[in-house]
Amino acid sequence: MVLNPFCGCATTCIAAERLGRQWIGIDVSHKAYELVKERLNKEVARPDELFSEEVHFTTKRPVRLGASVVELKHVYVISHPNYPGEFKVGIAKDVKARLNSYQTSDPDRRFQLEYNRQTPHFRELETYIHQQFENKHEWVLGQLDDIKSEIDNFELA
User: Fold this and answer.
1) Does residue 6 surpass a pLDDT of 90?
2) What stretch of H or E contains 49?
3) Which of 3, 13, 58, 6 is nearest to 27 (CA)?
4) pLDDT per position as a tens digit, 110-126
5) Ramachandran region, residue 120 (left: φ > 0; alpha: ψ -120 to 50; beta: rest)
6) Distances (CA, A) of 156 to 98, 101, 112
7) How far, in Å, CA of 118 to CA of 43, rounded?
8) What dihedral angle (degrees, nearest 10) is formed by the CA atoms of 155, 151, 100, 93?
9) ∠ CA(41), CA(43), CA(47), 5° rounding?
10) How far apart are CA 123 and CA 140, in angstroms?
11) Can you tell me the distance from the alpha carbon of 127 to that of 112, in angstroms, rounded to the nearest whole number?
């Protein structure tokens, strides 16, 4: 059994499937879920047999027994001047640490935090933004002011 708690782009899931191993892939991003399905359908034989009731996606947080603590995380918007009109929209407990993790991949350290909102509905808000804008996996395409406006006006139905 292969467990990948940060499955992101699905490489481990694909390798496990090709090797005939059982696997579990977990990620906080709904885009990771879509990417796993897309890559498995393209890169693994018998895609019609892969997805049944065994592949799940949910934005509901697990219920912690005996705890009533509301978890708050930030939904953030990060930009890079080499990618005008594209914005990384994601979730982080510590936005500055997340920005630093992007900066380490850029020798010029030009990623910039454009906006963030702390909310208990972080998963729902991230999913909503990715549904409202055209996107490339975890990057959305659009105008920064429009993205910020959608974040500010988000209300859980």
Assistant:
1) no
2) helix 47-50
3) 6
4) 999 999 999 999 999 99
5) alpha
6) 25, 30, 28
7) 37
8) -10
9) 35
10) 16
11) 22
Which is more confidently placed, 127 or 9? 127
pLDDT tens digits for 61-95?
666 666 566 789 999 999 999 999 999 999 999 99
**What is the model's pTM?**
0.60
Structure tokens at 131: 């549904």
Cα–Cα dist 29/79, whole Å: 18
Work out the percent of the chain whose per-residue pLDDT is above 70.
Answer: 83
CA 108 to chain centre: 25
Residue 133 and residue 31: Cα distance in Å, rounded? Answer: 13
**Selection from 35, 34, 45, 44 nearest residue 9 by Cα:** 35
